[in-house]
Amino acid sequence: MSKGTLEIINLHANVEGKPILKGVNLVIKPGEIHALMGPNGSGKSTLAYTIIGHPRYEITQGEVLLDGKNILELKPNERAVHGLFLAYQYPVAIPGISVANFLRSSVSAVRQYGKKTEDNSGAAEENHLIPMRDFRKELDEQMKMMGVEKSFARRSLNDGFSGGEKKRMEILQMSLLKPKYAILDETDSGLDIDALRTVSEGVNRLSGPDLGVLVITHYQRILNYIKPQFVHIFMDGRIVESGGADLALVLEDKGYEFIRQKYGLEINLAAEDKIALKEVVS
Amino acid sequence: MTVMPSINSMNMMKEDTFHKFQSQQNEPVWMQAHRQTAWEAANELPLPNLKDESWRRTDIRSLKLEEFQIPGNYEGFSKLVDFRKLEKEAKERFELGRSHGIFLMSRDSLPHGCVGCEKLPEGVVFDYLENVYSRRSELLQKYYSKAVPSNDSKFAAIHYAYQSGGVVVYIPDNTQVEIPLNFYTLITQSGQADFTHVLIILGRMSEASFIRRTGSLEPETPGLHCGVVEIFLQEGAKLRYVDIQDWNQKTWHFSTQRAYLSKDSQLEWIAVGAGGKIAKTNSNTHLKEEGSRVDMLGLICVNGEQHLDYHTLQDHDAPNAASDLLYNCVLDDKARTVFRGMIRVHPNAQKTDAYQKNNNLSLNSDARADSIPGLEIEANDVRCTHGSTTSEINAEEVFYLMSRGISRENAENLIVEGFFETVLQRISSEPIKDTLRTLILRKLGLEEKPL
Q1: For residue A266, what pLDDT band results from cuts at 50, 70 and 90?
Q2: Which pTM was predicted?
Q3: Is B235:B263 a contact under the CB 8 Å cutoff?
Q4: φ and ψ at B397, to 5 degrees?
Q5: For B424, how many CA atoms within 13 A lie in the half-sphere containing its CB?
Q6: Any CB–CB contact under 8 A between B450 and chain A?
Q7: What is the DSSP string of B267-301?
Q8: Strands A57-66 and A6-15, sheet pairing
Q9: Which long-range contacts (CB under 8 A, 24 or more apart) does B4-8 make?
Q10: How many angstroms separate the CA atoms of B374 and B189, rounded?
Q11: Short-list B32, B24, B119, CA closest to B74
Q12: Partner-chain contact A96 B425, CB within 8 Å
């Protein structure tokens, strides 16, 4: 495979002994936007967490290769350094850690600031942190672009943030960390239309020939803003159908029920999915 | 020159020792009489033991009072030690020169003396208790030992018998002292007992910031602190009181602290617990008049085999008063903390607004935090809440930070810092916030991060 490709090969994973991922195959190249659509409980988020390295998920088979290297052997922080990023559906709130302090630690770590400066003698004194002045300048610029108020820098990370503020914070992190591959897990959930637009614009601004994106979503809605070239339908722990952007429209038209029948899958759709389907179908 | 007979290395609980000590003090009759009364109480009162409800969780059976040396004369001592070296070390320890404020070293610490006292406004007293006997006798007689009487407990009684090297702060009415007043106590000798007394009186509409900090010159020398803190705030007065307990881990610490608040007065009371072998601190606030408010903040960080026991009381004895307590403890190794808090609302204290929260973060499964929050409410129109949490570092928080490139170690450190930061955020002074942050990061073994 070409350099810079993210390859998910026959990935199987268990949660508490129960198989959730049952052979996922997906290749994302730089510059591509993929959408992964599926009903609740199908294992979409598990896929995201497994790629990023959450300890709760036990990999039983398969590989995830980035630049040909199996990243499943790496710790979550090492995966981030290699350019993987997950925008969480439910970002964790941590009281007492300011957004600025957190972001400075994160950016310094992902850019391996300490390692670079250790060679230039003396510069590594500041605990391998990017100089405050440089960081604040960059942060202010990015915050302005994301429509985030300056006062956010002093607030505790995600603590007391509204749903929209949390999602904006995730994309702000993405814009500072500049990953090679970004997974957006249900980024549209809980957002009103204005917030959805701001967040989507943020993602679109970051996309380009060097970034691969995987948009995980339940609804077609976000795909009106972030346009994928590839759409995959995820059910029962694997991708059951792949196609172009028009596949999302087929899904919108016919619903997950159609896919389920087509593949004879025995999935119990959650009640909310049935409602969602009605919305999608009507 | 004749060297006075040393009274060090004599058993402090022996009659002879007390009388020799007393005879060496140059003090007024009323103070002599007070010492005598305290001495009698010290002999009558038993040492607390595990059967006492408030001592159930703190075992002091290994305390041997006779092994500690009462404050002696330092004339003989000064010949034996390198004074200059001590002075340099003491200054470095307390970062004198780097910090902002006026500094007084306890008279029983070496070196002693005031740095910057000439900057104080007219009428302000910030001096050793002994120096104030003659100058402000009426003030001392009115307040000394009135918040904490000498028969309050065995430790209070011993304190008043041997009280030495303490400080008096008096701010006259309508006087604001912006520059912080720092009082430092250093245990310099092995087996030294410290009996420093802190007496703070703020007149009507006055303001001050007082930082009390303790430490030991050497990390391994045994020490004993047996102290009393008395605070009186008159109408509309505002005090920030910072108590930094940073003895070495071989020092016993017994401290009885009480504050009385008059109408519309405000107290920001910050307790930092970093040092000590076994420590028992009783911090009581008495909201005696309407409109008074106290914020009690605790930053406690223990490791090794430290055992720190805090008892707090928010005593509401007037309507429309507010109290808000937040004590956060971080425990590592085999350390233990005890937090026992009480909000007491008297029948007259309607419209009381009282809050109490104790959070404990345990970094080691061998550490143990006991939390016993309590309420005693006798009024019917009040808002009182309390709560406590005890947890380990949250794995989801660590994962979130790690997925952003931060190593596990740094992620955990950030979370611990954040745990203290939630308390620091409530402190209204930036320089004090910075001082305390530095102190805690050092205790946690983390370098200070510039931010």
Answers
A1: low
A2: 0.89
A3: yes
A4: -65, -45
A5: 24
A6: yes
A7: EEEEEEE---SEEEEEEEEEE-STT-EEEEEEEEE
A8: antiparallel
A9: B4/B73, B4/B75, B4/B76, B6/B72, B6/B73, B6/B76, B7/B70, B7/B72, B7/B73, B8/B69, B8/B70, B8/B72
A10: 40
A11: B24
A12: yes
Of B397, B403, B450, the CB nearest to A94: B397
Burial class (CB in 10 A: 0-12, 13-18, 19+), A206: middle
* A104–B406 C-beta distance less than 8 A: no
- Name all domains of chain A by residue range, CATH numbers in brackets: 6-92+178-281 (3.40.50.300), 94-157 (no CATH)
pLDDT at A83: 95
How far CA B410 is from CA of A156, B276, B383, B446, in Å, comes to 17, 27, 40, 10
CB-based contact (8 Å) between A81 and chain B? yes
CA distances for B177 relative to A97, A145, B428, angstroms: 33, 45, 16
pLDDT by residue (tens digit) across B317-334?
Answer: 999 999 999 999 999 999
Two tokens at A16? 């508490």
Selected residues 217-246 of chain A with any CB under 8 Å from a CB in chain B: none
A5 contact partners, CB below 8 Å, separation of at least 6: A27, A28, A29, A30, A65, A66, A67
Q: Which residues contact B82 (CB under 8 A, 6 or more apart)?
A: none
Q: Contacts of residue B415 in chain A, CB cutoff 8 Å?
A: 94, 97
| B326: contact with A, CB 8 A cutoff | no
Is the Cβ pair B414, A101 closer than 8 Å?
Answer: yes
Reported ipTM = 0.91
**B409–A contact, CB cutoff 8 A:** no
